[in-house]
Specification:
heterodimer; A: three-stranded antiparallel β-sheet; B: 352 residues; 66% helix; globular
Chain lengths: 388, 352
């Protein structure tokens, strides 16, 4: 800056021998921290409350799933993929089963197809409910967490009835499903939809349109559409930025082309398109759409033997495939190589949460520590899937 | 109940011919302090249990149901025993002296505030003529304890919590004081008993309905600011769990943690009690024919109701961000309370 006063320099000879040393404040957020959703470590450099940089460090939950898969027979991999995204096991095993079936050229029984859709969409609702709850916790509202878990409990009871598991189901097998639906199960699914749809209003009243919640999330962590695409985001995180891309519509797999549902995208109702509130609201709207799909599937489901097409011996011809499905977190891709033997040669997973997390350093700069928590929560990461 | 209290409070002065004055003063102060400590401890246990039950019922669950039989009433007692028996950890790099001092300061400040709370016509530990001023000044001391605890823990999260806490409490003291000034303008006294006695009559003569709706706004401003003063949601930034782990008391465990916890619930009661005294008629019944019910019942009931509202808000609202918190204080609450002072003064001038 140019000198603006006319006084000679010497008049202000203030001795400042050692100016106060200022430095960034380096904070280790995690791996044990309430808001990192598991064991993520984020290295923060902060200036007071302002974040100057945030670097995620991952790998605390690495379980060598991909290497394990090379020593397993084809059906044995299913319980492993369940454990990647433990909040949406059904969607994970659906992707794997579809990929292997496509390699085998296997046509799956109709009833099994419908059951797969029902459980996947129910699991999508359950996963988004966990998101709703934990996101509430991240911004300091405790009650939505328990409301979300109350509804999720009913979904899990349904899953327990059909598969025996409550978190990791091992239900969708190569060529079909593990068990047919027990008597009266489909009616219970319908009852759940009747019960669940009015609850959305409750969440909206309590959290979504709460003034403080909007203040905390609108215009926070804005991801413009081009940035979102460049970073390879997918799922609700991408749609929150206003990009209309849903694999269930754009690249229909399974039997998704038979159902009528909308793809929800962020519109920037409370702030800018692509802010945390948009990403949150996309998930709320998606729960309604998933319930719609579940209803249609329950009404259309044909009779038949759901286990008819489950092969006794899975023989996968030599070759390779990349198959992608839409899980609650986004595009889950399986790259599978087979040499015709009993086990896969390579199973590589394109984990949506991993790509979604990668945008954190780009949007974190200049936000506050509390915003960082809100942004991280709105990305809806699951560490089991990131570290695999 | 009133005569018993009176007997008790007059028993000691009755001994005055037998004992020298200094001993008598010390004895009565000690007894009062013990009684207050007992009250705070019991109230905090009760309030924690109450908060658990309230939050549980708001969240579609039951809360503690096992310990003690009826609705788990003994749960917090069991928890206190657990805290008492826990190992008392002090981090290696901590400033040991300050670390130990901090909970004591925080807790003694909340005990000290009880000294001027009027429970009934005769029952008040000391009726200072500057009671309100005393409470306002003593409660700002707590922030020193919090800062001390956050600094001495030598933990970055604790330091963050302490820094936030200082900024928050210092800013929110201003709207608190300003909204209480309107009360002082009306009642013309700083003595807590004097403030209550000036609200004699049925509930319409309480300060909150004075100059309707201006004093009501003052009450709302006071209540919002008092939430920030005691670090309750939506202003619980100093201990924001999802951001700062546990804020300034991250490193505390065992009984030292319990002291912070006790102080928090005691402070909740204190700010509610001040609100009840200044705005809701203190120990006065809402209708004068209900006079036969003793004062402590009304005083405690009104305060407890406000404590309940605090809990209600806690389990409903999310948390504000630091800058929004400062915005609320400096750009909303403080100007509004200034305007209120002007309005109330003019109104008084016109109706003189």
């Amino acid at each position: 800056m140019a000198q603006t006063n006319n006084f000679p320099e010497t008049r202000f000879e203030l001795e400042i021998p050692d100016p106060l040393k200022t430095d960034e404040f380096i904070l280790n957020m995690g791996p044990q921290h309430p808001s990192t959703h598991g064991v993520l470590r984020v290295l923060l450099k902060t200036d007071g409350e302002i974040v100057e940089s945030a670097t995620p460090y991952i790998g605390y939950l690495h379980r060598t799933f991909e290497k394990h898969a090379e020593r397993m027979t084809w059906p044995q991999v299913v319980p492993y993929v369940d454990r990647m995204d433990y909040l949406a096991s059904m969607n994970n095993s659906l992707g794997y089963a579809l990929a292997v079936e496509k390699m085998m050229g296997l046509e799956v029984n109709e009833r099994a197809q419908y059951l797969r859709i029902i459980v996947s969409e129910l699991n999508r609702i359950a996963s988004h409910l966990v998101f709703l709850g934990t996101y509430g916790l991240d911004v300091g509202a405790f009650t939505p967490f328990l409301y979300g878990f109350r509804e999720r409990e009913r979904i899990i009871d349904l899953f327990e009835e059909i598969s025996g598991g409550r978190l990791l189901y091992n239900y969708i097998w190569i060529g079909g499903v593990a068990f047919d639906a027990p008597d009266g199960w489909l009616e219970k699914v319908n009852e759940f939809c009747d019960y669940f749809e009015p609850k959305i209003k409750e969440y909206n009243d309590l959290l979504t349109f709460n003034k403080i919640f909007i203040e905390r999330t609108a215009n926070v962590g804005v991801i413009p559409a081009d940035l979102a695409i460049n970073y390879g985001l997918s799922g609700p995180t991408l749609r929150g930025s206003g990009v209309n891309f849903d694999l269930r519509k754009n690249d229909p797999y399974c039997i998704y082309d038979r159902f009528d549902f909308n793809v929800c995208i962020g519109k920037g109702e409370q702030g800018t398109v692509g802010d945390s509130w948009d990403r949150y609201y996309v998930r709320i709207e998606e729960m309604v759409e998933s319930a719609k799909i579940v209803r249609q599937a329950v009404n259309q489901i044909p009779d038949g033997d759901a286990k008819e097409t489950v092969p006794r011996n899975v023989r996968v011809p030599a070759g390779e495939i990349y198959f992608r499905t839409e899980t609650p977190r986004g595009e889950l891709g399986y790259y599978i190589v087979s040499d015709g033997g009993k086990n896969p040669v390579r199973v590589k997973v394109r984990a949506p949460a991993f790509c979604n997390l990668s945008i954190l350093p780009a949007v974190a700069r200049g936000t506050m520590v509390a915003d960082l928590v809100a942004i991280l929560g709105s990305l809806d990461i699951v560490l089991g899937e990131i570290d695999r | 109940m009133e005569p018993i209290l009176k007997l008790f409070t007059e028993l000691l002065p009755g001994l005055s011919p037998l004992l020298p004055y200094w001993l008598l003063a010390t004895l009565s102060a000690l007894i009062a302090a013990l009684v207050l400590f007992g009250f705070i401890a019991v109230f905090a246990l009760f309030a924690i249990w109450l908060e658990r039950k309230i939050s549980a019922h708001m969240q579609d669950r039951l809360g503690p149901m096992e310990v003690g039989g009826w609705h788990g009433w003994a749960q917090t007692i069991a928890d206190t025993f657990k805290l008492l028996m826990k190992e008392d950890l002090i981090p290696e790099k901590a400033d040991r002296f300050l670390f130990k001092l901090a909970p004591m300061i925080v807790f003694s400040v909340s005990i000290a505030s009880f000294a001027v709370l009027p429970w009934s016509r005769d029952f008040i530990p000391t009726d200072l003529n500057v009671g309100l001023l005393y409470i306002l000044s003593i409660s700002s001391l707590a922030v020193i304890g919090i800062l001390m605890g956050g600094w001495a823990s030598n933990n970055k999260w604790s330091l963050y919590g302490a820094m936030r806490s200082v900024a928050q409490i210092v800013s929110y003291e201003i709207p608190i004081s300003l909204s209480l000034i309107t009360v002082i303008l009306i009642t013309g006294t700083l003595s807590m008993q004097g403030i209550v006695q000036s609200q004699q009559g049925n509930f319409l003569s309480w300060n909150i309905f004075h100059y309707f709706p201006f004093m009501f706004v003052a009450f709302v401003i006071y209540f919002i600011a008092s939430l920030a003063e005691v670090n309750r949601t939506p202003f619980d930034l100093p201990e924001a769990e999802s951001e700062l782990v546990a804020g300034f008391h991250t490193e505390y465990s065992g009984m030292r943690f319990a002291f912070f916890f006790l102080a928090e619930y005691a402070n909740m009661f204190i700010v509610s009690a001040i609100a009840a005294t200044a705005f809701l008629g203190g120990w006065l019944p809402p209708f004068s024919f209900l006079d036969f019910i003793p004062g402590p019942f009304w005083f405690f009931g009104k305060s407890l109701f406000l404590v309940f509202v605090q809990m209600w808000l806690r389990w409903t609202l999310p948390r504000l961000r630091v800058d929004q918190l400062m915005y609320t204080s400096w750009k909303v609450l403080t100007p509004f309370s200034f305007v209120l002072i002007l309005i109330v003064s003019f109104w008084q001038l016109l109706t003189l």
